[in-house]
Amino acid sequence: MESKSITWDLVIGIATGFALGLLVGMVALCCARIRRRRCRRIQSQKSISAQKETATAAVAGKGVSKGGADSSSSTPTVSELSKFGQDSPRNSEWNNMPMWLEGLRRKSLVSACGIPKYSFRDIQEATYNFTTTIGQGAFGPVYKAQMSTGDTFAVKVLASNSTQGQSEFLTEVLLLGRLHHKNLVNLVGYIAEVEQHMLLYKYMSNGSLFSHLHDENQKPLSWDLRVDIALDIARGLEYLHYGAVPPVVHRDIKSSNILLDRLMRARVADFGLSRQENNETRSSNIRGTLGYVDPEYVLTKMYTKKCDVYSFGVLLFELITGRNPQQGLMEYVELAAIDTEDKLRWQEIVDPRLDGNFNAEQLSNVSDLAYKCVSSVSRNRPSMRDTVQTLSLILTKRHNTGNYTHCSTPATEETFIEIDLLENEDVLIER
């Protein structure tokens, strides 16, 4: 009996010891996991704090050198962006994610900037292996993509060897995630994989304003439609200047960057050069398009809202005359503006394709507004808010006075200075 008692005591002792050991092990494992999570959280918070200024600088355009992004800046690169949005939250990238990706430790196509990330294979299928070319961008071709969901996108491809293109790619992804307006072209997605970087936009079925104004195969835009388009553009710029927080300057307003949807409503596109307004920092170089660049910006190297106003004024005259700003448009305008007492002076430069079908009073008012916008002194130019109010008033009067007044355009000898420029519109003018 004594032997059996000893045996049971031994069994009970071993079982108790095993249970206690298992309990201690589980407690230790839980403590280790809690400690690991706490360390990761602290690491993440430190990373977020350290990169707040960097993320803001990426949008503000600070630290950009002559070649594009400053090598000393910690702004995320395109290759780093290609790591974002991975399915597994355990990937090491999440431990050092920037501010605008915080809180997205879950399986999702949506990036922190609010822009969905697509796979290269999705777009390859939607473009029928990239055979649906609809244009050529500054850094690569543009394709039409018919998605399986029924949506139609325009896909702008970034050339893999373009440093400046990478900078503009990052700017658009970071910037357009927080800009939403009916007169801006929406960025609906992006691709950031190894050697494959693309931007996806809502497809604008009627193409660019440039093609409608300068392609002889296109039907001429009516006068009313030109004024409507001008107001759409003005409203888009007004939003950038006064609705966005912080305010944004576009820096490349031109007819080829204005796209028209199926209802012929205009939308401002291409935000690759856009920056947060900075009235104190001078640019190391001048970026923009010949014919649209504010001369004061060329002299001061400081880009403000009024520089966008100047470009908008040039665009207004382009709508009025149907002339390309790179082919002597402003010299043509200045000749008409010499005789300030002649109320018919603007009729001399109106687009002949209108065949006299325009409202003379509206033409005078829109032309006067455009001329104020291109004032050589920026402080004399109206704000985009004032411009929207002026154009809205012109449209209000349209309904009261009738749409058209057939005017006979005076037969005058065409005199203008033609500037011989390279075909490539986008230029970099260095000091």
Automatic annotation (TrEMBL):
<keyword id="KW-0675">Receptor</keyword>
<feature type="transmembrane region" description="Helical">
    <location>
        <begin position="6"/>
        <end position="32"/>
    </location>
</feature>
<keyword id="KW-0067">ATP-binding</keyword>
<dbReference type="Pfam" id="PF00069">
    <property type="entry name" value="Pkinase"/>
</dbReference>
<protein>
    <submittedName>
        <fullName>Leucine-rich repeat receptor-like serine/threonine-protein kinase</fullName>
    </submittedName>
</protein>
<keyword id="KW-0472">Membrane</keyword>
<dbReference type="GO" id="GO:0005524">
    <property type="term" value="F:ATP binding"/>
</dbReference>
<keyword id="KW-0808">Transferase</keyword>
<feature type="domain" description="Protein kinase">
    <location>
        <begin position="128"/>
        <end position="394"/>
    </location>
</feature>
<dbReference type="InterPro" id="IPR000719">
    <property type="entry name" value="Prot_kinase_dom"/>
</dbReference>
<dbReference type="InterPro" id="IPR011009">
    <property type="entry name" value="Kinase-like_dom_sf"/>
</dbReference>
<feature type="region of interest" description="Disordered">
    <location>
        <begin position="61"/>
        <end position="90"/>
    </location>
</feature>
<keyword id="KW-0547">Nucleotide-binding</keyword>
<keyword id="KW-0812">Transmembrane</keyword>
<feature type="compositionally biased region" description="Low complexity">
    <location>
        <begin position="61"/>
        <end position="82"/>
    </location>
</feature>
<keyword id="KW-0723">Serine/threonine-protein kinase</keyword>
<keyword id="KW-1133">Transmembrane helix</keyword>
<dbReference type="GO" id="GO:0004674">
    <property type="term" value="F:protein serine/threonine kinase activity"/>
</dbReference>
<keyword id="KW-0418">Kinase</keyword>
<dbReference type="InterPro" id="IPR008271">
    <property type="entry name" value="Ser/Thr_kinase_AS"/>
</dbReference>
